Amino acid sequence: MPITRRQFVKRSAGMVSLSLLMPKVLLTDAMAQSTNRRIFVVIQLGGGNDGLNTLIPYTDSAYHSKRPTLGFRDTELVDAQSKSMILNSQFGLHPALTQLKDMYDQNQVAIINGVGYPNPNLSHFTSMDIWHTANPASPTGTGWLGRYADEKLAGQSGLLAASIGTLPKSLYGDNVVVPSISSFQNYTYQTDSRFAGDRNNQINTFNANNNRVFDAGSFADSIAEMSVDAVAGAAQVQAAVASYTSTVTYPAAPNPLSAALKMAAQLITTLPQANLLYVQMGGFDNHSAQIQGTNKLAGAHFTLLRYFSEAVKAFYDDMAAHGLADKTLMMEWSEFGRRPNENASFGTDHGTTSQMMVIGDPVTKGIYGQQPSLTDLDQAGNMKFKVDFREVYATILNKWLGVDAQEILGGSFADVGFLG
Amino acid sequence: MAFTNEDAAHLLRRMGFGGNPDEISDLESRGKEGAVDYLLNHQNINNQPLDDLLTASFNFVDPRDGNRFNQGEIRRWWFTRMVHTRRQFEEKMTLFWHNHFATALSQVQDLYMYIQNLKFRQYGLSRFDDLLEAVSKDAAMLIWLNGLQNVAGSPNENFGRELQELFTMGILDPVTGQANYTEDDVKQVARAFTGWKFRNPRQGSDPYNAEWFIQANQHDNGSKTIYAGTPYQVSGNLGGEDVIGIICNRPQTGRFLTKKLFDFFVHPLSSSSQDKQTIDKFASVYTSSNHSIKELVRAIFTSDEFFSERARYGLVKQPVEYIVGAIRMLGADYRPGANVTGERNQTSNALAGFSRNMTQDIFNPPDVAGWDLNLGWTNTATMLERFNFANALVTNRNHTNPGVSITNDQLGEYTKSKSKKTVNKFLEVMNLFGVPKEVKTNLRNYLETDDQGVKVGYDKNDIDKKIRGLVHQILCLPESELN
Lengths: 420, 483
What we know:
The structure holds 2 protein chains of 2 kinds.
Chain A: H1 5-11, H2 17-20, H3 24-33, E1 39-45, E2 55-56, H4 61-66, E3 92-93, H5 98-105, E4 109-116, H6 124-133, H7 144-152, E5 161-164, E6 180-181, H8 199-210, H9 219-242, H10 256-270, E7 276-281, H11 300-321, E8 328-333, E9 354-359, E10 366-369, E11 387-388, H12 389-399, H13 405-409
Parallel strand pairs in A: 1-7, 1-8, 4-10, 4-11, 5-6, 5-7
Antiparallel strand pairs in A: 2-3, 4-9, 8-9
Chain B: H1 5-15, H2 21-29, H3 31-40, H4 48-57, H5 71-84, H6 88-100, H7 110-123, H8 128-136, H9 139-144, H10 158-168, H11 183-192, E1 196-198, E2 212-214, E3 224-226, E4 234-236, H12 240-249, H13 251-265, H14 273-288, H15 293-301, H16 319-330, E5 333-335, E6 337-338, E7 346-347, H17 350-357, H18 380-395, E8 403-405, H19 408-412, H20 419-429, H21 437-448, H22 463-475
Antiparallel strand pairs in B: 1-2, 3-4, 5-8, 6-7
Helix pairs in contact in B: 1-2, 1-3, 5-16, 7-8, 8-12, 10-11, 11-12, 13-14, 14-15, 16-17, 16-18, 18-22, 20-21
């Protein structure tokens, strides 16, 4: 059923101005509703994260025979402060994930092992599309969160969802347009920075010209209305973000995930309807120099996992400081894992299954799924998946986001069990 | 009726991206038919400055050289062409076909996207049959719509379906409302195209020649019947070329193409009986001209419909039109920078980036149906992107680095001694005819107001602040979003 363009505009999840311009009493109501908030933050690790060196099967002899240089022995599963990273008799976390180990011990982390999908595709792009669309057979069209937004968020006003950085296909919807915000500095009506004193004149002129009366239903009418909303809405986002305060210090640059999660926190804590956020960090395609020389406690993968761990911890603490820890769920994913056999350049090639983490107070901690065999591999020498990623999606859609996962995913998937 | 300056500006914005006052005056002097003829026969226009710029800015000798030939580079290449070409209609028609036969970098390698783009240029105004055949045999299309997987015994219907639904006739005849084909026709047509392949360009030979061929053992040589029970029924051992000819001969193809051309170049067509008559009128040109795209578009661009009130500012500018149009109308600069052997490797892909943020990622439409035009372009985030592009354009004073910029001298050319004249001149430069007095007053007030909000009068020498601001405000008018 095609919707009209006018409806399309009205349904845009990017329409930020309406609720923000609501009278104070309504805003208070909205704030009150916020006690029922269900905040969901997706963290995409781009490039294919090495799941085997994230959740490490340190007691599996096949792991050590395939990872003579890259593999961690039980004695090596300690962080810089000599804290043990071992989770149980089978698994330990990479030593860079020290904050996540603490969070795991605090019942805040669920790890799903052996995640993948049938007929794995080793192309970054195609595999990402498969995860974004949740449609391995035909990975085009809308994204799984876009379909969720179409069903649950369309028609509501306010900044309901946002991607920090570019817009991922996960958020492509038919009826909603999710804004992507690369920086708050740019998400504003820009005027000549050389003449800041002239900015008010520009904005006044802009508003006078766009607040005119146009023929009802004309392109100009829609555009003018949207333009005023865009500029006013951006100003409100700016004001909201400016009102953000936090007791938490986020890890400094160059941790890109820290910067993105801080932006997400700025929106979440100041806009009561901003509940669906998406952040990304790339760089996991470590075909070579995954470790630095032969030092496993340095190099590309160590650094990226440290960024991840530190950023997630800061974001969690920030949510907690704003009373939102029990209302916030994070989900980490990557388009595939790496091949069990390390290669000759201290790196790993494209693989299939990996682990996913779902993080936050709402989860029941544990290691879910199953470690795929490291000896019974597919033709390419990759692991055979144990949990379909759509089971993780379905669990979150049903148990956290409050929609019928079957409608969103076009099929029935088992509940993984990490939520209640 | 006289062909006015405003008519010429309208024509150039639609057949191209717009031009500065001199270009528009030149076009006006040619008269309506002459102007359309001039733009249509673009091969006759000397384009040496563009050719020189491309040579100085790009090195596409070896498409396997990923540093010099990649997704970003082909985007930069096309934007450079659109901004700097004198053959505006070549670029605009290529954009039309890119949207019509929408193929995307999301699934297709940059090399094949580039080859396809060259084909749109080569066949863009030929017989539609020839263009359709070239596109159907094109490597990008064979990849994009699974032609390579379309084999005898197990046909892939993707191309067979879109060929009819999106490229030629549409599901329903836009005039009669009748279904143009059945699901069985999709299957039969798919069979005709089985075994279509291309050879990868070989090292040493032309690296851009992805040669089409039929893999005999994958081609279905059985008898196919298409459009059974209709006046268009044909049976026999049909191949893909036969099917293309049959479809191009159907009057529905002329109607569908007319509708697509109107939606893109003139104004959106409704299902009113008047609009159906319009479709039939131009579809008859398609038929009588033996499917000449050139004659069809000539008829459209010289028509009363094209110059009607309804057509004026009757489309929302595509992001590419907004970006390239603003640069061309203002006479601003876009320096693509150089990425050639021996030169400093410093380039600007800023225009493609702005366009992508406005949701028109060139070479990468969202799906095979192409971009959603008009209000499909607009939401609060993309409007901000448009305004912020405008601000970047008018506030970038750096004239030597790669990127987009404009100097005070360039702006001074249109700055008059009185605020009223200055406002009128810039509105004219930006092709905004008939803007209401209220807007002109607002813009004059802007020019005459100081930082304290006090009306102190106009200073024609304050180009760096107020004229730049004025142009930004003009580009932020709803009228500036319309084409």
